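Entry:
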Amino acid sequence: MLRPGGRPLPPDLLVGLGAADDAAVYRITPDIAIVETLDFFPPVVDDPWTWGAVAAANAMSDVYAMGGEVLFALAIAGFPREMSKAIIAEVFRGGSEKMAEAGGVVAGGHTVVDPEPKYGLCVTGRVHPDRILIKGGLRAGDAVFLSKPLGTGVITTAAKAGAADADVIAGAVASMLRLNRVASEVACATAARGATDITGFGFLGHAGEMVTASGAGLEIRAGRLPLLPGTRALAEAGQWSGGMKRNRRHVDAVFGERLRIDPAVPGFLAALLTESETSGGLLFSVAPGRAQDVRDGFSRRGEECWEVGRVIPEPAIRVLP
């Protein structure tokens, strides 16, 4: 991560280099702050439109994790010189149409020649300066919710190896394409105090960032964690991405004995907690008295959510069956 190099940060940079979070936030007026984030990656699926749309949803997720509203984006991409222009056009179309679904627009961008194709967005959003969701908002006693099932990492890894059924891949694609807009709206409406999105560092990696930033811990009930159909079988078959072990080493290095996974938690599930996810859900906390409001808010909007644990005073992570 880049550091500010000892220089004082401008007071209007509300979230930036001084603390690790999902996006930068810069105050423009007393009522408006700009949310800025950037994300891009190589193809996670074969279909070019779907890759572009998933990459866009994934990039926008950081704005939603800050409680923001998506405004517009600039595309950032690299493609091999020999790649078909028709394929490239489909990638851009997927990203643009997913942005339109969010109420935003792709307003421009930049492309370079790259032997490994990559695509993503630099997304601009807005949020009220007093209503920003941050990773450091956990408070002891809060109820913790997750807005999407886990499993995109093992499923897309298996798909690349030809080891995943079409219906399993379709389920993962549908999840990756779903925006976190509803989750963000519900989190804000129920006065959520801490939030992040689950992506490349896996569930424990991103949960650990919340613990570090908050000085409070998480007690997670592994049995309550939602899984995409087919995830367990593929995980038990060892269809892990290259990031899973790296993520686990990082979490172990940061937390040491403060990370405790109950031996009764199945081995595949313990490993899945550090598997990389693409366009995963929001993980957020609310005061315990607002937990039913969260469930009702998701239900009214036709989406699911799962209460997966609680916030504890000790800055540790406990994973129970």
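The mean pLDDT is 96.
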